[in-house]
Design brief:
The protein has 65 residues and is of the alpha+beta class. The chain contains 1 helix and 2 strands, in the order H-E-E. It is elongated, with a radius of gyration of 22 Å.
Length: 65
């Protein structure tokens, strides 16, 4: 049996309160990347090497006016 509308509204209220308790949230995202560097002799180019990373960062979005 699916949850009732009342149950769903209560769950939404609890989640909204928990999100409000998180504090200051800024827009954006954090991404993780990994890969190989530009040095052909680097250790990251060896067979079965996972490469460099993960490197966490926040992409910067610029608005050109």
């Amino acid at each position: 049996m699916p949850p009732s509308l009342c149950d769903l509204e209560q769950q939404r209220e609890v989640l909204a309160q928990r999100i409000a308790e998180l504090g200051d949230l800024r827009p954006g995202s954090i991404t993780g990347t990994s890969g190989r560097c530009g040095k052909p002799e680097g250790h990251c180019h060896q067979p079965r090497h996972p490469g460099h990373g993960p490197i966490s960062g926040s992409p910067i979005i610029s608005k050109h006016v």
